[in-house]
Amino acid sequence: MPFELVIFLAMVGVFAAGCFAAKLPVSLSMLLAACAGLLVSGNGLPVRHLVEGTFGYVDTILVIATAMVFMRTVQESGALEALNAVILRRFRTVPALLLPLLMLVAMFPGMITGSSSASVLTAGAVVAPVLILLGLPAPVTGAFIAMAGILGMIAPPVNIPAMIIGGGIDMPYVGFEVPLALLTFPLAVLFSLWFGLPHVKVVEWEVLAAKLDLETYKKYGIRLFLPILVVAVLMVLGKTLPQVFGMGLPVVFLIGAALGLVVGKRFNILSASKAAVNDALPVLGILAGVGMFIQVMTLTGVRGFVVVSALSVPPALLYAAIAVSIPLFGAVSAFGASSVLGVPFLLALLGRDQIVTAAALSLIASLGDFMPPTALSAIFAAQVVGESKYSRVLVKLVVPSLVIIGWALAFIVFSKQIRALY
Amino acid sequence: MTYLYLAIAASVLGLTAWNLWTEKDWRKQATAAMVAIPLLLRVLLIK
């Protein structure tokens, strides 16, 4: 057995033991796995390598932390609930439009923060009561917002699994917007109708109004949405006129957060920022842990070994391995699956368009958030809709998950043709 | 722009340290420390 395989098995074993046996957070399990790799390889415990690894994701950490602060200000200012109310008022009689729009609202926090939990627990919690009121059963509503969570996590502008996979092969997170949009938005429309259309009914506005917060929109009007609009415009300008507006996502999010302070309900920005960073810390810790894990894999030669092994797998088996192993490993963490399996699989697919392929792999990795026993997205969604057994939500997600895998594999197979479209 | 980013890193570091200080669970404290270390080194221009 090659020595690199021994080291890799030790790292994965310690990681799994940390997550499942010791019930440690994924971040600490990654740290322990990196230490195990160092010890087994005979490198001792060089702390500088662990610290060096965390720097791979410092910029991503800043993006996510500031995005969470922005999202919190949007929530506290009342903009999220107001947006929900406006969409319902305009489109409640046209379910085929209403459902995709509600899906987009539920996806929005995930798109900004790159976290499915942020989507499910913030916008998901706002959209879920409305969906139930519109006639969707609780498990279906849970499936709707859980799906919004993972699609939001993958949709542009912020996609952490794609950043992790790209970081593993030194590919910058640039040019992902179009493939990620092509991957996620058609699925968002499809699944919103899939879950919603069989159950949705047209409800009288008076019935809906009683359940909605209409006062905030009446009081502050359209200016409530100014932070979201400004952030969107600055993001587009940052791409089209980078010399003038290329200020980076953290500054854009903080400008949006500053606007959020003055356009709606008043709130304490320090407490809101602290709560936002507190919510983000598990994800930020995972990024630091992933950085350490990859650094040790590189130092010990495991990374090269995994890549060479992945390259030697026959193409047909490679696709099957991608479809099965990445979501299964996602039971530990979608981010962990991106790091440990996403990177070698991307290297094994070097003949494909790398950006489209990395985007598609990130979509498959996101399914880890549906994978028991952790199943973060499904568990939070079940809590939000008051469903005691999250398995009832998960059952509704099985077929859509297979559709997602098929869709992502099609993107990998036809990556060059898809790249030629834009 | 460099100073602006250092200020943002310092702010995130401050909020992380604040959470670390008020957190009771050692696992979450350790996670916060993992995030704080690279930010601290970046703010101090050591790395």
Written overview of the protein:
The complex is a heterodimer of chains A (422) and B (47). With 422 residues, chain A is mostly helical. The mean pLDDT of chain A is 90. The longest helix of chain A is centred in the C-terminal third of the chain and has 32 residues. Chain B is mainly alpha-helical and 47 residues long. Chain B has one domain. Chain B contains 2 helices and no strands. The longest helix of chain B has 21 residues. The chains are: A mainly alpha (422), B mainly alpha (47). Chains A and B meet through helix 2, helix 4, helix 16 and helix 17 of A and helix 1 and helix 2 of B.
Task: Write out key terms for the chains shown.
heterodimer; A: 422 residues; mainly alpha; 24 helices; 0% strand; globular; B: 47 residues; 2 helices
Number of beta strands of chain B: 0
In the predicted model, the low-confidence regions of chain A spanning at least 5 consecutive residues are none
From N to C, what is the helix and strand string of chain A? Answer: HHHHHHHHHHHHHHHHHHHHHHHH
Number of helices of chain B: 2
The major sheet of chain A is characterized as: none
Tell me the fraction of residues in β-strands of chain A, as a range.
under 5%
Largest sheet of chain B: none
Considering DSSP H and I runs of 4 or more, what fraction of the residues of chain A is helical? Answer: over 70%
Mean pLDDT, all residues of chain B? 94
List the helices and strands and how they pair.
The complex is a heterodimer of chains A (422) and B (47).
Chain A: H1 3-21, H2 26-40, H3 47-54, H4 58-77, H5 79-91, H6 95-113, H7 116-121, H8 123-133, H9 138-154, H10 160-168, H11 177-196, H12 205-211, H13 215-220, H14 226-240, H15 242-245, H16 249-263, H17 269-300, H18 302-311, H19 315-329, H20 334-348, H21 354-366, H22 376-385, H23 391-413, H24 415-420
Helix pairs in contact in A: 1-2, 2-17, 3-17, 4-16, 4-17, 5-6, 6-8, 6-9, 6-11, 8-9, 9-11, 9-21, 9-22, 9-23, 10-20, 10-21, 11-21, 14-16, 17-20, 18-20, 19-20, 19-21, 20-21, 21-23, 22-23
Chain B: H1 2-22, H2 26-43
Helix pairs in contact in B: 1-2
